Amino acid sequence: MKPRFRRVSKGQSKTWQGELPKSEQGYVFVLEDSETGTVAGICAIEVAVGLNDPWYNYRVGTLVHASKELNVYNALPTLFLSNDHTGSSELCTLFLDPDWRKEGNGYLLSKSRFMFMAAFRDKFNDKVVAEMRGVIDEHGYSPFWQSLGKRFFSMDFSRADFLCGTGQKAFIAELMPKHPIYTHFLSQEAQDVIGQVHPQTAPARAVLEKEGFRYRNYIDIFDGGPTLECDIDRVRAIRKSRLVEVAEGQPAQGDFPACLVANEIITISAWCWCVPIQRPSV
């Protein structure tokens, strides 16, 4: 076991045992082919964001400038720095190996978190958010960052994203603009990607929207990607989950819809589902 995974496992154990404050609690899930041991994907949940370090978004709003005397009325789209999602639970770290992106494997991986949240509802907060990857090209170029963030941070997008991802977030509060930003001052290329997702992220967004998540005009401060949100009890998979008793028996005949099955018993190292997954073609 590599050190990184060892630290993750230790953190999950302390989370489950209630030894960590909510601000440090999180769960990591792995999609594994049990026959081969191949790891196909990974996803995670943060229990509560923004309780240690500020959680930043831009809220896309409107400021009106009007003059009756001059017969001028302008409603201007504006970005406001926001901490509105502080305390929300977050869906994060979704990655599926490209070879496994077929036949609903990504759908299964994404929805697995909702099954866990339904089984252990009291461990999560009332609102759930998910930051979607914004528009970035294969060279790491982000039109939104190039037109806005880089002017204040004086660094490349990849550097800023790395610092934030490793918990070094103090620079955001120190360098971020404190006043509303009129989007008309950004390049047209940057304006066009506000609230838009990377093409490879579009399927993940579609899955969340089917579950009831919506874009409420909050975007990532780095790449301009949308933040989706939903009240936890309105998430379709959580709302429609059912507790039933099962007994050993003979397999039923005929075609039946696939079900994601879990239980309410968890150990330090495992909380598992056994479901069919589609393997990559050889």
UniProtKB/TrEMBL annotation:
UniProt keyword annotations, A-Z? Acyltransferase, Arginine metabolism, Transferase
Species for this entry: Escherichia coli
Q: Which domain of life is it from?
A: Bacteria
Its GO biological process annotations read:
L-arginine catabolic process
UniProt-listed Enzyme Commission number(s): 2.3.1.109
Q: What is the lineage of its organism?
A: Bacteria, Pseudomonadati, Pseudomonadota, Gammaproteobacteria, Enterobacterales
Pfam families linked to this entry = AstA
Q: Transmembrane region positions?
A: none
Q: What class of enzyme is it?
A: transferase
Protein name (database record): Arginine N-succinyltransferase
A GO MF annotation of the entry reads: arginine N-succinyltransferase activity
Sorted alphabetically, which InterPro entries does this protein's record hold?
Acyl_CoA_acyltransferase, Arg_succinylTrfase_AstA/AruG, Arginine_N-succinylTrfase
